[in-house]
Amino acid sequence: MLKRLLIKKEYLLILASIVLLWLSYKLAFKGTIEAWQNNRQLKTQLTRSTDLSYQPGYLERKNSNLDKILKLYKADTAAFRNNSINIISAIAEKESVKLSEVPMQDPFYHTDKFIIQKLGFEGDFFSLTKVLHQLQLTNDIGIIRSATYKMSGTNPTTQKDKKLVLEVCLEIARGVDF
Length: 178
Prior knowledge:
This protein is an alpha+beta fold. Helix content is 52%, strand content 19%.
């Protein structure tokens, strides 16, 4: 019986080593082998496909969005004094605001790509704010670069002589392609 037991121990040792190899494959080697096969499959798919960095649909959407942004800045600088001032004064009149100041174009504010035009409006705060909002929404007159609210008047002690003035600087792109 002892001889049978020794034989069974050898069989048990072989069986235990086979079970240990099967467990080590399942727990350690199977995931690594699957990842290696998946990597090899993805590399072959990548080499078969064309250049993925070139996406014409994405580039077209990007160009159209940039054109829309640049259109906000562009205005016809030769006709700015006529057409744009008429549009701006109509917006101001609609909100009961006075377009009080349109100074002559100062060469100091001109660059080779942009012109900065300063405008002055008089009125109450809420109407001036509505005009500022409408100027921001209006296309083809340029884009607002800065806006400043100021109190002006001759006598600082009386409120009747004081006026609220909104100074707006519009940035207009010249007809130069970027």
